[in-house]
Amino acid sequence: MIHYFKPRSSNSSSGFTLIEVLVVIIIIGILSAIAAPGWLAFINNRRISTMRGQVADSLRKAQTEAKTTRTMRAVLFDISATGQRSPRMAVVRCSTTAATEIATESCDLAGVVPDWQTLGNGEVKSGVVQYTATTIAQTGGGADAGQARLVFDANGLVKTSLSGGIPFTIGFGVTKPGSGGTSYGTARCLVVQTLLGGMREGNNSSTSTTECGS
Predict the structure, then answer these.
(1) Of 171, 164, 153, 11, whose CA–CA distance to 93 is shortest?
(2) How far apart are CA 96 and CA 212, in angstroms?
(3) What pLDDT, on a 0 to 100 scale, did the predictor assign at position 9?
(4) What is the dihedral of CA 202, 204, 206, 207, to 10 degrees?
(5) For residue 206, what pLDDT is reported?
(6) How many Å apart are CA 207 and CA 214, to the nearest integer?
(7) Pairing mode of beta strands 168-175, 129-131
(8) pLDDT digits (tens, 9 = 90+) for 100-110
(9) What is the sign of the dihedral through the CA atoms of 56, 142, 97 and 165?
């Protein structure tokens, strides 16, 4: 049997047409536009959760040190550089004696140089996450104007007269690039709600829009 092979036309071609390529690009663009906000929100929530976890660990450590050493501990939150760098905090020892600390409402930090710790474990770009107004408002009695302060006495109890009262809220919010305050996303916070130092996680919601500040 003789087979005849038809020569391939020189006009035939393989591959994608320009229209097909444009359709694929448009579809990818639409899917990216849909997914990007959700991914950004996820990343921002992870950043804030990391910071909130660091604060919780530091508060527990400060409370334990206060009870163990019978000396007051102050947890300082640096609110002086909002919009410029990542939030910072420090745990310091009050410089009064144990007997005085128990009997009086004092936490002398004269001469104390805080060992500031930048929150975010180096994973958060400066200025992306900031303390919310709720944290900034809790400067406490006699505290430095650039610091919010939570103090544990020699028994490990929260000293409300120094800490601005209970609950004491450490709130975080995402800032819009180039702005000085939290502009978008859901603010989240850590709330110290009892004199014993009991803590819970909080966030702004439809039923509580101001718990963590803005």
Answers:
(1) 153
(2) 33
(3) 54
(4) 50
(5) 53
(6) 15
(7) antiparallel
(8) 655 555 777 77
(9) negative
Cβ atoms of residues 90 and 180 within 8 Å? no
Say what the pLDDT of residue 181 is: 60
Instruction: Report which of 122, 126, 119, 108 is spatially closest to residue 170, judged by C-alpha positions.
Output: 119
Distance between start and end Cα atoms, the chain: 86
Q: How confident is the model at residue 93 (pLDDT cuts 50, 70, 90)?
A: confident
Distance of CA 198 to the CA centre of its chain: 19
In contact, 182 and 132? CB cutoff 8 Å? yes
Please give, one letter per residue, the 3-state secondary structure of 140-177: CCCCCCCEEEEEECCCCCECHHHHCCCCEEEEEEEECC
- CA–CA distances in Å: residue 149 to residues 85, 105, 108, 110, 176: 19, 14, 12, 15, 26
DSSP the chain: ----PPPPPTT---S--HHHHHHHHHHHHHHHHHHHHHHHHHHHHHHHHHHHHHHHHHHHHHHHHHHHHTS-EEEEEE-TTTTTS--EEEEEE--S-HHHHHHSS----TT-----EETTTT-S-TTSEEE-HHHHT---TT--TTEEEEEE-TTS-B-HHHHTSSSEEEEEEEEPTT-SSEEEEEEEEEEE-STT--EEEEE--SS-SSTT--
Closest-CA residue to 101 (of 155, 142, 141, 143): 155
